[in-house]
Amino acid sequence: MCVTAVESRPAGVALTPSPRGHRPYGARVKAFVALTKPRIIELLLITTVPVMFLAAQGVPDLWLVLTTTVGGYLSAGGANALNMYIDRDIDALMDRTSQRPLVTGMVSPRECLAFGIALAVISTLWFGLLVNWLSAGLALGALLFYVVVYTMLLKRRTSQNIIWGGIAGCLPVLIGWSSVTNSLSWAAVILFAVIFFWTPPHYWPLSMKVKDDYARVGVPMLPVVASNQVVAKQIVIYSWVMVGVSLLLTPLGYTGWFYLSVALLAGGFWLWEAHGLQNRARAGVSGAKLKEMRLFHWSITYVSLLFLAVAVDPFLR
Questions:
Q1: CA distances for 2 relative to 43, 204, 271, 311, angstroms
Q2: Distance between CA atoms of residues 114 and 193, nearest Å
Q3: Contact (Cβ atoms closer than 8 angstroms) between residue 147 and residue 83
Q4: How distant, in Å, are the alpha carbons of 65, 115, 182, 239 from that of 252?
Q5: Residue 206: which H helix or E strand, with range?
Q6: Which residues of 74-85 are buried (b: 16+ CB within 10 A; e: fewer)?
Q7: For residues 255 and 130, what is the distance between their CA atoms, to the nearest angstrom?
Q8: pLDDT at 76 exceeding the cut of 90
Q9: Strand, helix or coil at 226?
């Protein structure tokens, strides 16, 4: 997931890039890995692999799981590298992105661009030749949506950026299903919708924490252009819709009692945290006492538990 990096330097002052002659091989390898944003990709895989179990109604072919996982990493890694290439100007001015490889000079912009394009091409061919071409098309679509629609068109122009840009993060659900069945179904669409409505209330608490960073570079994340009360209200609205959508799988016959139990308990705790944040915002609480990061951290646990239940449920029906 996203990691807030804070260091002892004046806000908005970029680091001095590493001279080309002072870039050790090991550090360079780590820098190229960092371009793929591995911690974000962990979350994408958490929403991909369990769906494969649901689609197979049991244990899917393990070779297929491996090829889908590797392909997903390569595709998402390419998207993330291209995102860093495009955002290198604002990354240099934001505290939370000050350690990224293009800011420190460990990787040059040209190298980053070539790396991202190479991963995009390789991942598409990987999916097409080793999984199926439907999954390849979905993976390429997710990459292009994240890079072009979110990073280039929405991020710096509208506070709705994370809502519609988050569609790219929903597509791994469809990729997981299509890799097993070479088709799509309403179960996959429902889980796609869960991630769609999960993304804003997952990311907005983090944006509340680092809104000064976004304000400094002119990125209109919702907490930059709206009060904490407005943001918290939106979080509550999206949270209720997300939990409601997550419960649809069972009455439609795709999951049983185990998934339903987890969705109710985890969703209930999410709503408790979301309303708690709203109550603190209404009371005018700010700073550390707002505790917005509690919901951010729980959001990661929530999606992990929910999709673990997706994977386990077929074995208990």
A1: 10, 12, 22, 25
A2: 33
A3: yes
A4: 26, 43, 21, 21
A5: helix 186-209
A6: bbbbbbbbbbbb
A7: 29
A8: yes
A9: coil
